[in-house]
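Researcher: Please generate the 3D structure of the following complex. Treat every line as part of one assembly.
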Amino acid sequence: MIQALLGDLRVYDKALGTELPSELMSFFSGELGGRFLNASSISLEEIEKIRVCLTVSHDLVAESGSVVLVSRNLNERRATTLPDRLLIYCENFTVHNSVRDFVANRVGLFEPNTTVTLLSGPSRTADVEQILVKGVHGPRYVKVFLVVDSDHRFP
Amino acid sequence: MRAIRTGLRRLRKHRVEALSKLSDYKGLRRAASEIKDKAVRNLPQLVERFTFQVKKQGGTVHIASDAEQARKTVLDVLSLHGVTRVVKSKSMTSEEVGLNEFLEKAGVEVVDTDLGERAVQLSGEKPSHIVAPAMHLTRYDFARLLKEKEGVEVSADPEQITRAARQVLRKRFVSAQAAVSGANFLVAETGSVVLVTNEGNGRLGPSIPPVYIVIAGVEKIVESLNDAATLLELLPRSATGQSLTVYTTFTNGPQLLENGTLQDFHVVLIDNGRFRAVGTLLEPALKCIRCGACLNTCPTFNVVGGHVFGDVYSGPMGLLWTAVTKGFDAANEFSDMCISCGLCSSVCPTLIPIAETIIKIKSTGSNRRGRRRSERVLTSVDSIEKYASKMPWLWNNLISSSLGRHSLSLAGLDPRRSAPLVSHRLKIEGELGDPQSTFIYFSDVFARYNEPEIGFEAQRVFGEAGLKLYYPEKQTEAGMPYLSYGMIEKAKRAASKNLSVLFPYVQKGYRVVTTEPTALYMLREIYPMLIEHSSTNLLAKNSFSAGQTLLERVGKGEIRLSKKFDASKVFYHSPCHARALGVSPYPELLRVAGYDVVTSDVTCCGIAGSFGYKKGVLGYGLSTIVGEELLEQAKSFVGDLYSTDSSVCGVQLFDLLKRRSMHPLKLIRAEPTRF
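Model: Done. Output below.
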């Protein structure tokens, strides 16, 4: 799985990482060298130039096919919205049935000064004659990597 | 116009598909209704809690009593930071308070970032729909606007247009000095701002600049995250048919900028009539979650769109919200367009009695009381026909003559509409039998004076089925035209009279049946609202469509139906009141009798009760345009029989198609299954 991610990231000159656990961050920095940047510590101008972002999620919502992203600062929000491609890595995750279930189970996630986003696909619009077009202001391509091993328990 | 109709039809279809996937739509609706009811009742406390939570996290909450104060507050915050470039994501509330124009005049550039809103902004127009603001624009319009206003050449292809818009708007996002957005919900428990978008502009815009202002009506506040989550299960499904929009964002207070400081975060809560609405007939409007389902289903909105049927807020909820924010007179400027079909109430996710509230709005306000001649005539049909039916031959000759048609025209009615011919008043002889097999017939005007054959045929079919139909002479019209023109007192009087005639039978255990869907709508939905008493409730519970009653007995195996005519197919049009009630037994009834039934697929035949009798564009003209859809479908029907149970739909079908349609009861025979 990590290799698959690496493959996806290697295609680009630079890649962004946000909210990744430190081991993953170190791994990718090591493999990709100075081309893998931590989104929290770079400028807006830098973020603008990068076309791929890798982040993690620990909560999924089944009914709506959503991935939950938590941003603790604005750079993390920018990094997961500006680049064209968003890759989401899920290893330790919980699948909630519905939005209501998610909110009921994860009230603690809604901490002060954070943003909780339920992401349900690539950015889209149907404003032009009701025809669906993907990739408006946010990423056009969203890929979720789920790591499921044999004894992973779903609550 | 066709673009609007197609667009709305798609939204309706998607909504139905999405809601059918919910395991308990009814329960969810009730829960949502309760959440909003509770919030509206506790508004001041919720405002306090919300304010406290936002402040705790380092943000500021302002309360603006009216539009002017709202605008000024926003400008003050912007001026404090020397802001001249703002990006905005869709906010109907910002339209309501006229924010854009005000800021532009003060030298602040405002760029709407929602693609549809930006197109509308560039073309200098107003949104035509609260959810799909650029529904009235074509791809050519978009391409032209991009070229003329942004200097970008792009082919009229939606993908290319979107790609170009993304680039153009991206530049605006990153150079913005402040972001303004609305809010779909505000959560008192955590001070959260909930935004629901597909494009991502709601998430991106406020992520860039050091200043973020949220403007929202006070009624957007709900108590808890769980409450917001419940409403989130309904809003996207009801609006666009999605289980969730792409970006559902909970912004919990001010966010941290890259330099470690907090974004300057402001929430401007707008009153502008909302607090005043609490405790009045407009209070239910505060439960609106802005899904737009009522717009999508409204027959009038489907034809004229939001620029005609509306102000800042359009369609049915627009009528309510214009009354809240600008007063009853402003709402009554376009309340004429409501035909009281009841479909809006039937689709509202938070159970707002929209149609009923519109009726009440129509009866208030001072500018409607100069009653127009046509309305006076249309609300006197019962009285006029009572006398006309004593000399039907005389009346019919007069009304069909050129003098007659001229008189109709002078009375404000359109002479192109077929003249209302009368017969001798309906009389059904017979003794009252027992409650199990005798039904009390409530005819309303048409079957009483214009086409008593309907009554006779109903009597025939019931008789064939071994049942009896009893017709109390002293009943009067159901009273729908009074409601259409806001004459609540007259409607109450008709209700009172009918109640006094029908209730004694209901008390004795009899059921009331109707052949006119509008009459059933009045009995079930309107009378209990006009006269709040247990008697109207009991009458409502014991009122049925004649078709329902027969179908019930078919289901129990007590009666059998067969065709009366030697035709194989029937084109059936389902009246809007029947659909609003959810009572549509006739297609099945006709099928059981052996016919192949083709049903129409329109929201409204167009005549809209008495509306389509009025002279000119806002009457006959509009009703004929609305009727085009139905005409197309009727014309492509290969068969001889046309049917509808609504008297006025029948008139419309005849005027459009030049073919007579028949009440479904005229097409069937019945017999008991055992003697």
